[in-house]
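Appendix B. Chain record.
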Amino acid sequence: MSATPFVFSVLILQLLFASQPCHRFLAAAADGRWQLLQKSIGVSAMHMQLLRNDRVVVFDRTDFGPSKLPLPNGKCRNDPSDTALKVDCTAHSVEYDVLTNTFRPLMVQTDVWCSSGAIMPNGNLVQTGGFNDGEQRVRTFSPCSTCDWQETPNGLAAKRWYASNHILPDGRQIVVGGRRQFNYEFVPKTITANTFSLPFLSQTSERGVENNLYPFVFLNVDGNLFIFANNRAILLDYMKNKVVKTYPTIPGGDPRSYPSTGSAILLPLKNLKAAAIQAEVLVCGGAPKRSYVQAVRGKFIGALNTCARIKITDPNPQWVMETMPLARVMGDMILLPNGNVLLINGAGSGTAGWELGRNPVLNPVLYKPDNKIGTRFETQNPTTVPRLYHSTAALLRDGRVLVGGSNPHAFYNLTGVLFPTELSLEAFSPAYLDTKFNNIRPTITAPKSMSGIKYGTKLTVRVVITGKVAKNQVSVTMVAPAFNTHSFSMNQRLLVLGNDKVAALGKATYDIDVTTPRSGNLAPSGFYLLFVVHQGIPSKGIWVKLQ
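Structure tokens predicted for this chain:
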């Protein structure tokens, strides 16, 4: 595609987008629909985390100068270390209220650029690292209507930029890697050694390119960590600092990690009462070898159009390759309440990095992991907003996916560039939210939201379903809210509790008995979204605390 017609098409899309008022639906519901929530929140959403009060914390970076959102009441951030603005009276973080479609400015004190985080068992967001004066900071955000960021200097033992975090069964976070950090550590700090060497990270780092930042980290069902970087993975016993399994390289050997950024998820965990529970990881997209070097020189190579799937619990695991309908780099993968996967955002060529992506992929794609190979992908309706480098996405309690960000520039460039800095928020509604499914859509009436649930016990969920019920197609799922940045949703996890029994109580009311996960290896303690899914159509979620 030549540059001139492409620029023209992007301008047309932007004009169409700008003419739409907030909450206007842009596409039919049959294959998903798009909704503009906010034309501008003043901050580009580089990082995103849903909290238990249905608010989403969004933040960018502090070292590009002023944002488009002033801090309230004359507040200013005084930071002699900031490389762009020593006194800054604008916000670089926002709290978005999903229920009211409003937002308020927040204040971070140090640079959070390309950082990481996760929700702790108490529901607080604990976020780590960043750039410059923020690289060893630990920050905490508590879910309340007036709360703001609190920072702990030297909360990290090492400088962490482009690291990945995961919640552990004991309630701590593990922080893995980062630029020139071939090790891991724990938050809060332990009384033992502060950092633990992980040679795998140096072995997967390519000179001058890296291609192993923001490693994909998942808690396996045996309590060990699956860690993927570049084009291969290991299983790590992090307590003993021992690699217990080495997985084969993805066929073809192309990189999938930043800046050749693909995405990855742990597929839904099922059959949770079985003696041996199977776990699978899916890695999709990325960029071919040398794409980053070529993009820096102005040549933008087409993104990878493959996904690789592996049963990480198998004694002899092998990658199985699948072909996506659309090639994608810098895409996000979001677990939906019914167990399907949404691939969204990204580019069709180039890599992550300043000005290095081209050909925005406007169509999301649905991946149905239980279908036969060759029938798993379904292309969805497109957005009109390119979401390239530094885009984000997060599942909301009502089943929509919040989408924001895209800033492929070192500063906020809103005009005169191919892909302007994007300050808007959108929501993508999968087809399961169409009103034609309302008669089979469950409505949860018990337990109440914020109820506590115990490990390995019976839980009864009461629902109302007005239409005909297929009891063998009723299932309860639990989803952990993920920290999303740079095409990776950290701590993302979905557990299929299924149903032990469905009892009709009359007046379209049903009790569903399920058994909760038996251990923290399956589901670390903390807050989860609980859904009831009927014939593939999910209810709105409720918050529960597993403890």
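Further analysis of this model is presented in Appendix C.
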